[in-house]
Amino acid sequence: MKILVCISNVPDTTSKINFKDNNTAFDTAGVQFVINPNDEFGLTRAMWFKEKQGASVAVVTVGDASAEPTLRKALAIGADEAYRIDAKATDGFFVAQELAALVKEIGFDLVIAGRESIDYNGGMVPGFLASTLDFQYVTNCISLEIEGNNATATREIDGGKETLDTQLPLVIGGQKGLVEESDLRIPNMRGIMMARQKPLHVRPATTSESQTKEISFSKPEAKGAVTMIDPANIDQLISLLHNEAKVL
Amino acid sequence: MSVLIYTETEKGVFKKNAFEVASYGAALAEQLGTDCVAVAINPPDASQLQSYGVGKILVIKEAKLDTFNAKGYATAIAQAAKEASAQVVLVSSSADSKFLSPLLAAQLGASFAPNVVALPESTTPFIVKRTAFSNKGFAHTELTGSVKMIGVANNSFGLHEKETTSSVTTFTPSLEDHLFTTKTTAVDKVSGKATIADADVVVSGGRGLKGPENWGLIEDLANVLGAATACSKPVSDLGWRPHGEHVGQTGKPVATNLYIAIGISGAIQHLAGVSASKVKVVINTDPEAPFFKAADYGIVGDAFEVVPELIEKLKAFKAQNV
Question: In this predicted complex, what is the ipTM?
Fold first, then answer.
């Protein structure tokens, strides 16, 4: 089984978000970039398929050279090779077209992406990719088993979960649950050394087509001050929620 | 030309998000000077939608769609959108809608913006405001294609009643068997319990609850309020509560009317995930907990003393205000 794990290079979850150039661009100054958390769960699951079922695992990202440390980290965790599509990830449609072109050329049975990136939160890349490739597709995936050509996936739904039977070739939108948080791997020194020797292929983009354009960015309005309530006066809280906030 | 809205049902009733999407759709159709057309799959009484300004309803009755199937549903909605010559297609932000959205957008060749929080800021060019950076910011995004698709963020636009007389037409999509290769074999969902996505109130617990054996406190408070229960990331990582209850940047986003956080300090990832909630109440023993800065109402106190009293007083309040 050939697995491709799609990696977004995103600001660390603790990052404060600021914009620059008259609010037309994300300000990367002082921001630490990491493997998108949803993708990291998928990458770790892919490692399991590699170790238990003999799968090969490649990783890919769409981005400029500044994304390479993130790809090297994925290689240090255990991926066999990496691809970088050398282009600005303008929107989800564009990224999916680029990923689809790679999948068609190299040939993969299973593509694991995150259910969404934590920067633009579009959640559309795995679905667009499955549509373009005519692969099966499951997102919000919290467990995945593969036997031969058959796959069993569990996805989170509102208020519960459901199990789906499906087939390879398959695109997964993964998230926490695909593996446990405690199963995530921190690269060790040997992994980091080996990652330096592993192939990282840089390829040009095949298209420039996108369907959306980010015009500008803004931040949420500053919140008003908190009203503190004495724990001995719970009635006041109920009264404020009823009369002032009008949520009771 | 029209605005086509997909109105979700579950177990024979429209979901609340169907009425929110209808409210948005009716307002957008007015802005564009066109009609709002709903598509509903195996719905109950579709005429409920006419209270929210929907002029025309396409009803699909199809046994193949009795169980949710992303490809099958996306294909049926895409065909309805073409039937209605839709220039804009609207979906909700439920788990099912998020599943089918990219498949639907791909079939329509539509420019798609999810998590949209308001009516378009401009219609030529077509620019929408959507949440980005996990609610730490907003992107103002232009949809450049001729067909546009919008995912309306949960509880962002609200319900706006507008009585209309609607016509109901049966629409029969053409659905080939290969669409149903991926099949749902089991659903594990507690029925009758409010979900984090739909609830007006969410009660959430953190490590301050000290252990899973104390979760009765959270559940009791939630029961009084008809609320969904949720938890912080450490609580789900420790296995005290299932992953499905984890709210925050890598968990579920919460956009409820009232969010009550008990024993949660308020890490930046948690605050991002719940920031779209309208009113936040924080109960924590630590007066320095960062969550207080993001709260509307705060109580510095021991959850094991404050919450039982809050439950009793809320019961009394509810008894008086039925």
Answer: 0.97
